[in-house]
Specification:
With 670 residues, the protein is α+β, with helices and mostly antiparallel strands. 35% of the residues lie in helices and 18% in strands. The strands form six sheets. It has a seven-stranded mixed sheet with strand order 12-13-16-15-14-17-18, sandwiched between helices. α15 runs antiparallel to α19. The chain is elongated and about 105 Å long.
Length: 670
């Protein structure tokens, strides 16, 4: 074919055509153009060009015809199916409509990836799109334009779906397999799930479903684009945050939300507490765990959470916050908002780790509440500072001791072996912070912040979401918990919650062998077993202190109740009852629905919340794992030197296809 071919292809797309006739191509019928009254001229270089006669369409040199200049229709040669020509296998045809140009481009990209061919754009603007095969000698081409200028719909005007290019031009890693196209195709797999396929899963999807070989980096970008399509962009999340909070308050009575911005309207902090949880807190023990965990999204930040524990031993989230970092100012702001919804009383206990910023903020904001340290974090500090993991048994016995006499015995054991540890626990930490028996308030059987850590682990896959998407996950989780636990509460047939009932039943059996004598109308002396007890069934106390602290009858109290012919359930704290459990989850947390359904006042919509300024992005893969806490060790996975897989050593490898000893594994790179 001569060198003037490309010029004719441009003319082919830029003009209208007189008519067309169908022709069979293999098993499919393709419509090829019919040209009339074409004349051939020479250009300045002497090359032969096909130019249209005045008022007539041009001739495409790819479709050479005879009888030029004749008024009669000419015969267009039929492209026979052969090894060098094939259909693209699509359902496209002239006259097919698409709602937008973007829909048409997405369709063509899908066809190109599955057919392992590439196309190039010859002309593109708001009303026209012209493409052809990347091989200049191929006959495949398409021309589409708007139906009318004011419409967004595109229609295929001309289409030749037959390829005549060489197989050398078939390419699985082609230009149409962009991360945008990959993201749009894989996006449905992220709807309704927190995690979805990772980059390698996206690579597999592109290879099996789209016939495209893509790199890991392109798969990572495609996954990120899919997340944006489903959950919105981080920047959009800041813009929509005021409207989102307005809808939460509107649909959930009593919900408290706060957004703090700086002088330039840039985001600083947010606070969220559902009205249902605020009202339900009156049926909880007044022990609140607080902690924070870092976020992994583009704008980072720290997620703060305050949670109680219900009568069945389950987490009861009270409030959520997002701040820039865990510093004293951020914690003071969050705790100030928390104080407004739960109050500040002597009955309230706040449990956290020993971070200085939290300690200072609690002492500043809460004047009456008591602050306790997480016993697990104290244990980690001991192991890290003093390298004495062998005394952890004595330490935990001291933590859980109900009587000061028992506590003193365990501390003597620790002091005899590690005097510096005993000094650290007494002077630097303080017995009243971590010991159950010395705690000035009432923390029941809650000695750690495990209830908070459980919430952080629950959100491990959602911590890289935009803020609104993250809050949506929190709302969905809480809605499900409230519904599921309400169903459980309604099905309970005993006076207590299931966990407390199972804890109390063994004490009935243990109390049968105890000898009980009455000292006065409300006091009983219980003998038998390792420890004697004097029980006051009116004030709900016992010499063993277990009844006093946990507010659940100990073995002595059960024996005394049986002797006094009093129901043991009358001695149980109401926080453990079915009634309180049902009241705590009696209401519903409602979602905000689709953004298109929101009814938000204009002053809320127009409120400006800009993204916070972030440090310049570091080179390399973004960090998504946190640094281990003090004393926290991560188990290292063993890699087999024979088969190259993880989880076992070479001596325990059962693989039959490994390298011989002294040679590198055959399936390990390098």
């Amino acid at each position: 074919m001569d060198g003037s071919h490309d010029g004719f292809r441009d003319n082919y797309f830029d003009v209208d055509y007189c008519d067309s006739e169908p022709t069979d191509v293999g098993s499919s019928r393709q419509t090829l153009p019919v040209f009339r009254n074409a004349e051939r001229t020479s250009n300045d270089n002497g090359a032969s060009d096909t130019q249209p006669a005045e008022g007539n369409p041009p001739v495409d040199p790819l479709l050479q015809v005879t009888g030029a200049g004749s008024d009669e229709p000419v015969n267009v040669p039929t492209i026979e199916a052969s090894d060098s020509t094939f259909s693209d296998g699509s359902d496209l045809h002239e006259g097919k409509y698409f709602n937008t140009k973007k829909d048409l481009k997405r369709k063509l990209s899908d066809i190109a990836m599955k057919g392992n061919f590439e196309f190039r754009t010859r002309k593109s603007n708001r009303s026209l799109w012209v493409i052809d095969c990347i091989d200049p000698n191929c006959s495949w081409r398409l021309r589409a334009s708007k139906i009318v200028p004011e419409s967004t719909k595109f229609v295929i005007r001309k289409y030749v779906g037959v390829h005549s290019c060489s197989l050398l031009n078939r390419n699985a890693n082609h230009r149409q397999a962009t991360y945008v196209v990959i993201g749009e195709q894989v996006a449905p797999q992220y709807v309704g799930v927190e995690n979805g396929p990772g980059p390698k899963g996206v690579q597999t999807f592109a290879r099996t479903e789209l016939g495209a070989q893509i790199s890991y980096y392109k798969a990572w970008r495609g996954r990120k684009h899919a997340h944006t399509l489903i959950r919105g962009s981080p920047e959009q999340s800041f813009h929509v945050l005021p409207s989102y909070f307005h809808m939460l308050e509107k649909l959930n009575l009593g919900t408290v939300t706060r957004i703090e911005v700086d002088g330039e309207s840039r985001f600083k902090h947010l606070f969220l507490a559902f009205g249902v949880a605020i009202r339900g807190f009156r049926y909880m023990r007044k022990v609140v765990g607080i902690d924070g965990t870092f976020l992994k999204g583009q704008y980072r930040g720290v997620l703060l959470v305050a949670t109680a524990q219900d009568g069945n031993g389950q987490c009861y989230p009270l409030a959520w916050g997002i701040v820039d970092s865990e510093n004293e100012d951020a914690w003071s702001w969050f705790l100030t908002q928390l104080k407004e919804i739960i109050g500040d009383t002597d009955e309230l206990a706040l449990i956290s780790d020993r971070a200085p910023s939290i300690k200072k903020a609690i002492s500043t904001v809460f004047e009456k509440a008591h602050h306790g340290a997480c016993a697990w974090h104290v244990a980690q500090n001991i192991k890290n500072k003093f390298k004495c993991a062998d005394i952890m048994g004595s330490y935990w016995s001291a933590v859980n001791a109900y009587r000061c006499k028992d506590f003193t015995g365990y501390m003597i054991e620790i002091s005899n072996r590690y005097p510096r540890v005993a000094e650290y626990l007494e002077n630097e930490v303080g017995f009243e912070k971590w010991s159950r028996c010395h705690y000035p308030g009432l923390r029941y059987n809650i000695t750690t912040t495990n209830m908070v850590e459980s919430l952080n682990n629950m959100l491990v896959n959602a911590r890289d979401f935009p803020y609104v998407a993250l809050l949506d996950v929190i709302q969905e989780k809480m809605s499900k918990w409230w519904n599921d636990r309400r169903i459980v509460a309604m099905a309970i047939t005993t006076p207590l919650t299931p966990s407390r009932e199972s804890e109390l039943r063994p004490r009935f059996a243990q109390s049968n062998g105890r000898h009980t004598s009455q000292l006065n109308p409300i006091t009983y002396h219980v003998k038998g077993g390792e420890l004697k007890g004097v029980v006051d069934i009116f004030n709900k106390t016992c010499m063993c202190k277990e009844f006093d602290i946990d507010k659940l009858p100990c073995v002595h109290a059960v024996a005394a109740a049986h002797h006094a012919q009093v129901s043991v359930y009358n001695l149980v704290s109401p926080y453990y009852t079915k009634e309180y459990y049902l009241l705590a989850y009696g209401e519903t947390i409602y979602p905000v629905g689709s953004q298109s359904q929101w009814d938000v006042p204009n002053e809320v919509v127009t409120r400006i919340v800009l993204p916070r300024e972030v440090k310049e992005k570091k080179r390399g893969r973004p960090k998504t794992s946190r640094f281990p806490s003090v004393g926290e060790f991560r188990k290292r996975k063993n890699r087999c030197g024979k088969c190259g897989t993880y989880g076992h050593y070479k001596k325990k490898c059962n693989s039959q296809t490994g390298s011989t000893e002294g040679n590198p594994p055959t399936n390990v790179p390098g």
